[in-house]
Amino acid sequence: MPEPLNVALALAAAGVPVLPLRAGKVPFGNCRTCKGNACGGRPTMKAPGPCHCPNPCHAWAAATTDPNILNSPQWSTAWRQAAAVAYHPGGAGLTVVDLDNAAAIAWACDTLPATVTVTTTRGQHWIYRGVMPSANKVRPGVDVKSLMAYARWLGWGNGVMAALPASVRALVLTDPSPARRAPQAVSAPLGGQSGLCPHRTPVFLARGIAMAEQSITGAREAVHATVYRTFLAVLSTHGRCGCLTDTHVARLFTAAQAKGETARHCTDAWTNALTTLGL
Question: pTM, whole model, 2 decimals?
């Protein structure tokens, strides 16, 4: 069995979605059917779509914890040729602050709370517990990798993992403008599926909703933006699998309103998140 596959299976068993990388730290190209997103599956790579290609297509969106997929014939060639393993931080409930040089590391040491650190070829990855949108070049030598991105797996690192701080979120996100047209009610489950999450266990969903409630409840400032970011994170992970129900959404809205948000703002924030993800 190729060594990258061994690593991938171990990570998948720990709940970390993985995918193979070619030389140059880039994912394998799409198959002929999916080339150029001809399959219509993942427009502009913003989020997974209806494509269910069995090949490791669509870069980060191919990341999985399913050993049957990782061991499938369609993925075997990629594993034999793989130079490394990547993972989807957001899918594992994580955010990676990618520090590319000594100056960036010095900035992080002065600015960010200590957390798990992993040595990279040029610098370090600082890994936090929590998810957010990804962005490149948020500062000189600093990228943020979480939702809709992949990071190279370089080991478990050293240190104790800290919660994602507001200082990292502030590098990427601003408070969204109100939706131009927001529905007065949210229907669920989203996606019209069976209500079961095909890529995670029920425990993963339950933990995700609980963490989202904690994120909102624990906000001490920028509550307006925190609510939006939390809704975005929940929908990015579960918005297409059909596992979100009215009960889950109500829990999030209740947590937001307990922090002083109005029902209208909750609806606007939810709609903005849906729009951002193309749902």
Answer: 0.62
